[in-house]
Amino acid sequence: MSLDLNIDPKALGKVAVLTGGESAEREVSLMSGAGVLQALRSQGVDAHAFDPAERGLHELKSEGFARVFIALHGRHGEDGTVQGALELLGIPYTGSGVMASSIAVDKITTKRLWIADGLPTPRYLKLRRDELSRERVRSVPDELGLPVFVKPPHEGSSIGISKAVGYSDMMDAVQLAAQYDDEILCEECIVGWELTCPVLGEGDTAVALPVIRIEAVAGNYDYQNKYFTDTTQYHIGTLPAEQEAAIRATVLAAYRSLGCRGWGRADLMLRKSDGQVFLLEMNTSPGMTSHSLVPMSAKAAGISYEQLCLWLLAQARLDGRVPDIHGSKT
């Protein structure tokens, strides 16, 4: 695809790249922010790093920032809280608005909406922190089968996730997830290939980028393999054209179902036995590190990292207001 890059960087004004933050994904966010900052500056944008863990967001207004590129991940960055603060400050920002951000960061609420819209997602159970008796935890595989994935539903980057292969693994897995969340998502294991597919745009004009099939060491695409090793293999353009098109269509439906805008990235599983695809989650502030998947997919579509960052910044807006990609304030 091609992006409308008829953008005047100077007209975008003084730009803050929100990076770091206080979530469990702070380290990844700092890497994303550094990459975005360098890319925007290379395109002539007056961009500055801004870490909400070190400075109050009200300083964005007092220091004259015209728009914000959100490179935060997880809580207080991807969950609608920062988006709400920026709405009150009247400073346009990249990515989804308050509602879509707060929904998508919650894997359980996301699954409920997708199920209501007839979209495929693995079967699941929700456990609360106050119902983690050994009997209840050990009963989960009776309902979902084994293995079971156990996740904190409000975290990303595979933080706090375990794969319980037997009944004896369940309690440790649940206790790990409970360190990060008051709720625990127990999810059916889909045996097959892990996929990811980014989306750019909004509504009917949104476009899905090429699908990436991920092949990690021993099938373990964890935090370490996502960001700090070079052993994970990424395959683009290897799926049959008809299957690729069907997956992209499913991802677009999932993106629109949540009301996302700007950009996002869906993570999926492709079941080996029958080729059925299952949606896992939607990321509304995806990683932009050297190992990240959105830039990788965009490159396959002929979009450079620098072009992607500039285009995303130009889409920055407030809820209910349409961006001017040529750079004037919304």
Automatic annotation (TrEMBL):
InterPro entries: ATP-grasp, ATP_grasp_subdomain_1, D-Ala_lig_Van_CS, D_ala_D_ala, Dala_Dala_lig_C, Dala_Dala_lig_N, PreATP-grasp_dom_sf. It is found in: Cytoplasm. Cell wall formation. It catalyses: 2 D-alanine + ATP = D-alanyl-D-alanine + ADP + phosphate + H(+). The keyword Calcium does not apply. It holds the Pfam family Dala_Dala_lig_C. Mg(2+) 1 binds at D267, E281. This is D-alanine--D-alanine ligase. Mg(2+) 2 binds at E281, N283. Its EC number is 6.3.2.4. Residues 111-314 form the ATP-grasp domain. GO terms for biological process: cell wall organization; peptidoglycan biosynthetic process; regulation of cell shape. GO terms for cellular component: cytosol. Keywords: ATP-binding, Cell shape, Cell wall biogenesis/degradation, Cytoplasm, Ligase, Magnesium, Manganese, Metal-binding, Nucleotide-binding, Peptidoglycan synthesis. Binds 2 magnesium or manganese ions per subunit. Its cofactor is Mn(2+); Mg(2+). It is an enzyme of class 6 (ligase). The keyword Cell wall biogenesis/degradation applies. Transmembrane segments: none annotated. Belongs to the D-alanine--D-alanine ligase family. The active site is at E25, S157, S292. The gene is ddl. Pathway: Cell wall biogenesis; peptidoglycan biosynthesis. GO terms for molecular function: ATP binding; D-alanine-D-alanine ligase activity; metal ion binding.
